[in-house]
Amino acid sequence: MGAGLGAISFSAAIAMIPSSMDSTHSLKWRLATNLFLIYPALLGLWVGWIRRSKTWAVLGVVSGIAAGSVFIALYGTIVSVLPLRLVQVVVVVPCVLGGAMSALLGTKTESWISGVPQRFVRGVIAGFALGFTYGIIFSQVFPMSLPEYPYFKFTPYPPTEPENSPVSAAWFFRLWISGTLALTISSALFLTVYHWSAGLSSARSVGCEPSVATPAS
User: Transmembrane segments in this chain: where (predicted)?
Assistant: First the structure.
């Protein structure tokens, strides 16, 4: 389920970007914006499915969109103010996302507030697993994603050309292949850890809609 969530999210995010972008900087901004909205919303929907609750599904989608919107509003400021490289941003953002979504959508007790700090810390761990794994896989796969590999010159990500350079079809193709594979694998790991961080293993018995298996008493 985690792998499917990652593959769908990245494929949908990049499919919403026109192939005729005027610069690599604009393309990366559009891709980040789309992922900030799509992935947290699908994560919230998955939480509702795990809980077998339409209420939690709606709450999860709304929480995901809200968290993504906050990231979009702050993304430019974070990148411009903090001296972070791209790989570091890829790790920091999922850490905050994992902590926020775990605190908002996870609970092991009747009180939602109880255990919020613990869930947030565990969610940060889950987010680190997502971001770190994504960054490592993406940085290794991106140079190998052209059909001519290994016969072309090694070109690391981000590319050495200026940020305002036009986006070539080959560059766009490399981004789609490497990004989809990286998010598919890292999301599979993330969902496994997130299931623990949010306390969803016991969610069906707490805060969910009544189950048909519940005894009449």
Answer: 31-49, 56-78, 84-107, 119-142, 171-194
Using alpha carbons only, what angle is made at residue 186 by residues 206 and 27, rounded to the nearest 5 degrees? 115
Please give the pLDDT value at position 82: 58
Structural domain boundaries of the chain? Answer: 1-16+25-148+168-198
Distance of alpha carbon 92 from alpha carbon 104, whole angstroms? 19
| Cα 113 from Cα 131, distance rounded (Å) | 27
* Structure confidence at residue 208 (pLDDT): 45
Q: How far apart are the first and last CA of the chain?
A: 35
What are the C-alpha distances in Å from 28 to residues 5, 73, 119, 164?
A: 20, 15, 31, 11
SS3 content of the chain, % helix, strand, coil (to 5): 70, 0, 30
- Dist. CA 140–CA 136, nearest whole Å: 6
Amino acid at 203: A
Residues 117 and 97: beta-carbon distance below 8 Å: no
- Tokens linked to 9: 């999210």
pLDDT tens readout for residues 78-97: 666 655 555 566 777 888 88
Residue pair 184/7 in contact (Cβ under 8 Å)? The answer is: yes
